[in-house]
Design brief:
Shape: elongated
CATH topology of the largest domain: Rossmann fold
Number of domains: 2
Strand content: 15-25%
Order of helices and strands: HHHHHEEHEHEHEEEHEHEHEE
């Protein structure tokens, strides 16, 4: 039997919450005023204790030896550049707890905002058909299903690995009736083999790759060395390739039904170009360029006439 390697000290003076919290922050190299490191510390303590901050205080939580060792190992991995979400193997998105690892992009708050804006456009509780293009971990498809369980939701991705993670998340959440399909939308007639596509969808949403590859050198190693490049980057010469293809498919190949809504997450420097792309096509109406909570233009919505 292989011997389990244990982390080395120094260890906290005692196993009380206040001591352990200060010890984790110190091992991370953070200062008390460092908001990011305080957030990472909280996420680690949430995970290792199975309790939120208030519950730890009320229950007078104390760290046992295995908890201290896990925290020490997580600190080492984080300092080496691994994203905290991958270290913990979980993240929260739109109130849904998801398994997350290097098979898929880590869900971002901006994507939650896209879901909220699209949900706000739905005026009926009758069952809709919803398509998530580039589903990754399944975060958008599963978030939508959590809010509108009556809808028929399909998530597609060009990555086998991402789809396997999405399926696992669907099973974990009890949403086993979602449709997960291996589809590369950049290929000709990508939905020909998907019979459920024949009627079109009432909502098409996508957070596609949109970062020009030239920006890679200015990005954090925590992102570029760990998250899947195929979910992040597009060529400098054609940064709108996914938007052009999806919008065209909605109009020319019937992916989106008449009166249906299209929603995109965008690079803040290209959001206006995506808006212009749709504005140049008379088949769209109610085109909206929306800002995220930081005031950056990040989402475009449109309704098919």
């Amino acid at each position: 039997m292989n011997k389990i390697e244990r982390e080395k000290g120094p260890w906290p003076a005692n196993n009380l919450l206040s001591s352990v919290q200060a010890w984790v922050l110190e091992r991370l190299g953070g200062q008390p005023e460092d908001r990011e490191m305080r957030s990472v510390t909280r996420m680690m303590l949430d995970a290792v204790s199975g309790l939120d901050r208030g519950q730890r205080i009320v229950n007078d939580w104390k760290a046992n030896e295995s908890a201290l060792d896990a925290l020490a190992q997580w600190c080492v991995r984080f300092k080496k550049g691994e994203p905290i979400q991958y270290i913990l193997g979980a993240t929260s998105f739109f109130g849904v707890s998801l398994k997350i690892d290097a098979r898929a992009l880590i869900p971002r708050p901006e994507t939650e905002e896209l879901i909220r804006h699209l949900l706000d456009q739905q005026s009926t509780w009758e069952s809709l058909r919803v398509l998530d293009v580039g589903t990754g971990s399944g975060c958008m498809a599963l978030a939508w299903k959590s809010q509108r369980p009556q809808d028929e939701v399909t998530g597609v991705d060009a990555s086998h690995e991402a789809l396997s993670l999405a399926r696992e998340n669907g099973v974990d959440l009890g949403f086993e009736d979602l449709n997960w399909e291996l589809v590369d939308v950049l290929k000709p007639s990508p939905f020909d083999a998907v019979s459920k596509a024949k009627k079109g969808w009432d909502v098409v949403m996508s957070n596609p790759p949109y970062i020009p590859i030239s920006e890679r050198q200015s990005m954090e190693n925590r992102v570029i060395l760990h998250e899947p490049s195929s979910a992040l980057f597009v060529s400098d010469q054609d940064p709108l390739s996914f938007y052009v293809t999806i919008a065209s498919g909605c109009l020319k190949e019937g992916w989106l039904t008449a009166g249906g809504w299209l929603g995109f997450e965008c690079h803040e420097e290209f959001a206006s170009a995506v808006e212009a792309l749709l504005s140049d096509q008379p088949e769209w109406r109610a085109i909206r360029l929306l800002k995220d909570l930081q005031g950056a233009p990040r989402m475009v919505l449109a309704q098919k006439k």
